Amino acid sequence: TMKNPVPQAASLLLEKLMLLVHVRPLLTGSGGETLPPAPGYYDTSCFKRGDLLEVPRTLFIHFGIYLGENRVAHLMPDILPSLTADRRHIQQVVTNKRLILGVLARTASVRVDTVEDFAYGGSILVNHMDRLFEDQDRVRGNEEGARRAEKLVGGTAYSLLWNNCEHFVTYCRYGAAVSLQTDKFCETVKMIIRDQRSVLASVLVGLASIVCLGLAPSTTLPTIFIPFLLWMAG
Q1: Which of 165, 172, 186, 212 does the annotation list as catalytic?
Q2: In what order do the strands lie in the sheet with 71-77?
């Protein structure tokens, strides 16, 4: 018998809503401000320009493209680019408040940070996603990937499911914007909808997606409420 997927779905939804916003670890100084690791914390001699860098966290993965000279291009939700054009302020290390407000406002920027600021103490995997693409011809040359990343630096729209840091790096390196984390989330939602015992939970997931994540262009409100109507009719 299939286990009731409601607890699993609820847990996954909370993970996506609260933790996949790239909230940084709580590394604080005496003033309570978040502090990055000291320069030189990472050995960048093994990184090549155009490498896809992957930083696993407890419940999500953050991605970036290495540009050389200790610089990483990565997409981060950030409210500040929609409020000011002052590059000096925007380039400062993104705070958790800016991150969360950026997610809610669905705004972000592709920014260039040091490896230390990008990884924030996490371990770094290099080109780890290459193994997931059977057609190795899809892997662009490192220089082409780096140039694509550089062209995209600046403000952009953000969606936790449809335009996140993983979409950015896969477009740069593989030529197709995909997110395996998004695929996992959507498959769980589909599993809930298929299970009639979980129709109400699917409606709640759909409503939460509308409010917090935004809808994919092909998604419509009737699609979200069909399971609910069937549940009411039953």
Answers
A1: 165
A2: 125-126, 52-56, 61-68, 71-77, 107-114, 154-157
Domain 51-179 has CATH 3.90.1720.10: yes
The residue behind tokens 């610089």 is 71
Residue whose C-alpha is closest to residue 208's, from 1, 16, 25: 16
> What values do phi and psi take at 195, rounded to 5?
-90, 110
Q: How open is the CA angle 114-119-124, to the nearest 5 degrees?
A: 115
The 10s digit of each residue's pLDDT in 41-94 is 889 999 999 999 999 887 788 999 999 999 999 999 999 998 988 888 889 988
H-state helical runs in 54-179: 87-90, 96-105, 115-119, 142-151, 165-174
Among this protein's residues, is 172 annotated catalytic?
no
Q: Give the tens place of pLDDT for each residue, 182-233.
A: 777 777 767 766 665 555 666 666 666 655 555 444 444 444 444 443 343 3
| Nearest-angstrom CA–CA distance, 146 and 148 | 5
State both tokens at 105.
């406002």
The residue extents of the domains of the chain are 51-179, 195-233
State the Rg of the chain over Cα.
19
How far is the C-alpha of 136 from the C-alpha of 168, rounded, in Å? 19
